[in-house]
């Protein structure tokens, strides 16, 4: 059975038309289902846990990347199938999973092309997309075998499912591939300097190094100092941290134009 | 733009050690390796190694093919072909099947070139794999 989780911002008036079109398309494809509206009083976790008690559910998130990411983390390791109907033109997951925006994504949901995608772990928590932190404040040990010593890089991005860049996409001869592979059992570790903007001054993003690891230990250089790691563009975790691939997979409905 | 986007397949994953990074320890690479920065310790890959002119490796190296334009202090075991560019500087022993040296390259060490190494290493690898399967 299909369960639809509506993002909290979709209650705004400007989305009435979009929602109406999506619901009409879902009904015509015969995949309409139970609707759950996210509010301040009803959290993603609460709703997802409720849906997961049902038999073989298909959970579809209508809305933004953040909510989709939270639902994925709550449903990882279960047999539930997850779909996403993005309502934002600049959705990262829409681009990676090959999903069109708004009602056009309904056809992809209906076709049910399913891929098992890995999740990552940072300490005891799961993450889905990436972890970003300052390169100069930490020491890095990969796979318990070698140290990566940052010398002229500013940021580190540990990627499970994301584009291989900090902000913008560049095509450079050494970087022909732009998306990570979340099915190979490795995490991509991208090191470099993100784009800098200050008044009229602009410095282009620089991607310096790329490693493939199963585990990365991140410790603060100064024992009395904690460094914050930004997880999935949303939460934070403090050092010391161990980032690794998780065994749990999540079953995602993907489009034919996917890049994973 | 979308046409250029693609995922990294396990067989063509390319580790890049950039100029802003130094690696210390036993580095077992997943796929091809491009070194533009520094590596100290040991380096092993079943695929290809490309050492750029800015790269410095102080390590014993094992690779399938190697293209060297930077500096190496250590011994190299290359299963197939090894190319030394004019900017290459190797201080160590070389063991490979095919060797190509460009004018201007520096090589200071013993050099063993021919089919024997490659066959032996493959046999050793097979024996290892068979032993692992038996375990």
Instruction: Please tell me what the overall shape of chain B is.
Output: globular
- Mean pLDDT over the full residue set of chain A: 87
Query: What fraction of the residues of chain B are assigned to beta strands by DSSP?
Result: over 45%
Give the largest chain-chain interface (CB within 8 Å). A-B, 35 and 31 residues
- Report, as a whole number of angstroms, the end-to-end distance of chain B: 48 Å
Any overview of this molecule?
Chain A has 2 domains: 2-112, Rossmann fold (3-Layer(aba) Sandwich); 125-246, Tumour Suppressor Smad4. In chain A, 18% of the residues lie in helices and 39% in strands. Chain A has 5 helices and 18 strands. Chain A has helices spanning 16-28, 44-52, 65-75, 92-97, 105-111, and strands at residues 2-6, 34-37, 58-63, 81-86, 114-122, 125-127, 130-134, 138-142, 146-150, 155-159, 187-193, 196-198, 201-203, 206-213, 215-220, 228-231, 235-238, 241-253. The longest helix of chain A has 13 residues, at 16-28. Chain A starts with a strand and ends in a 7-residue tail after the last strand. With 135 residues, chain B is mainly β. Chain B has one domain. Helix content of chain B is 15%, strand content 48%. Classes of the chains: A alpha+beta (260), B mainly beta (135). Chain A binds chain B through residues 143, 145-153, 164, 169, 171, 174-181, 184, 186, 188, 191-192, 207-212, 257, 259-260, and chain B through 1-2, 4-10, 13-31, 34, 37, 41.
Layout: helices, strands, pairs:
The complex is a heterodimer of chains A (260) and B (135).
Chain A lengths: L1 E5 L9 H13 L5 E4 L6 H9 L5 E6 L1 H11 L5 E6 L5 H6 L7 H7 L2 E9 L2 E3 L2 E5 L3 E5 L3 E5 L4 E5 L27 E7 L2 E3 L2 E3 L2 E8 L1 E6 L7 E4 L3 E4 L2 E13 L7
Parallel strand pairs in A: 1-2, 1-3, 3-4, 4-18
Antiparallel strand pairs in A: 5-6, 5-18, 7-10, 7-16, 8-9, 8-15, 10-11, 11-14, 12-13, 15-18, 16-17
Helix pairs in contact in A: 2-3
Chain B lengths: L13 E4 L3 E8 L3 E4 L2 E7 L3 E4 L4 E8 L1 E4 L2 E3 L2 E3 L2 E4 L4 E3 L2 E3 L1 E4 L4 E3 L2 E3 L1 H20 L1
């Amino acid at each position: 059975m299909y369960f639809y989780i509506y993002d909290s911002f979709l209650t705004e008036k400007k989305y009435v038309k979009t929602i109406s079109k999506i619901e009409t398309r879902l009904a015509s494809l015969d995949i309409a289902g139970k609707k759950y509206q996210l509010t301040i009083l009803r959290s993603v976790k609460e709703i997802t846990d409720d849906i997961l008690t049902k038999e073989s559910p298909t959970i579809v998130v209508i809305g933004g990347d953040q909510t989709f990411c939270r639902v994925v983390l709550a449903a990882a390791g279960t047999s539930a199938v997850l779909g996403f109907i993005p309502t934002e033109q600049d959705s990262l997951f829409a681009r990676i999973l090959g999903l069109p925006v708004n009602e056009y994504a309904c056809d992809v949901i209906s076709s049910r092309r399913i891929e098992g995608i890995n999740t990552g772990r940072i300490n005891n928590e799961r993450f889905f997309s990436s972890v970003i932190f300052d390169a100069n404040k930490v020491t890095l040990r990969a796979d318990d075998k070698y140290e990566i010593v940052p010398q002229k890089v500013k940021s580190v991005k540990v990627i499970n499912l994301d584009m291989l860049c900090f902000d913008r996409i560049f095509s450079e001869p050494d970087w022909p591939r732009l998306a990570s592979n979340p099915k190979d059992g490795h995490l991509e570790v991208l090191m470099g300097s993100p784009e800098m903007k200050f008044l009229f001054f602009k410095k282009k993003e620089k991607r310096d190094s790329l490693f493939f690891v199963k585990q990365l230990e991140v410790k603060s250089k100064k024992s009395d100092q904690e460094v914050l790691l930004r997880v999935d563009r949303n939460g934070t975790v403090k050092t010391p941290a161990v980032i690794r691939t998780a065994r749990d997979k999540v079953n995602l409905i993907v489009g034919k134009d996917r890049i994973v | 733009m979308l046409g250029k986007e693609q995922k990294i397949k396990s067989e063509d994953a390319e580790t890049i050690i950039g100029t802003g990074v130094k690696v210390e320890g036993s580095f077992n690479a997943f796929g091809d390796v491009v070194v533009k920065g520094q590596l100290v310790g040991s380096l092993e890959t079943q695929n290809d190694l490309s050492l750029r002119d800015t790269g410095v490796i102080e390590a014993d190296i094992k690779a399938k093919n190697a293209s060297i334009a930077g500096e190496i202090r250590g011994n190299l075991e290359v299963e197939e072909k090894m190319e030394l560019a004019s900017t290459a500087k190797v201080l160590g022993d070389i063991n490979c099947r095919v060797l190509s040296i460009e004018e201007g390259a520096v090589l200071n060490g013993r050099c063993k070139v021919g089919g024997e190494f490659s066959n032996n290493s493959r046999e050793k690898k097979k024996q290892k794999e068979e032993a692992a399967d038996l375990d």
